[in-house]
Amino acid sequence: MLAVLITFGTQAQESVQFPIPKYFKLQVVADDLVFNGVDMSITGFDTNKSPKDIYQFYQNAWRGEIRESAFGDWIIYSHLKDGLLYTVQFQQLNKLRISGTLAISNLPSVEKTQLKNLGKGFPMSRNTKVANDIKTYDGLRESRHLLLVNKMSMASNMVFYKSTLTGQGWVLQHEESTSSEGGALLFAKESSTLNLAMTNRDGQTFIQAIRIDN
Question: Which domain of life is it from (predicted)?
Answer without folding.
Answer: Bacteria
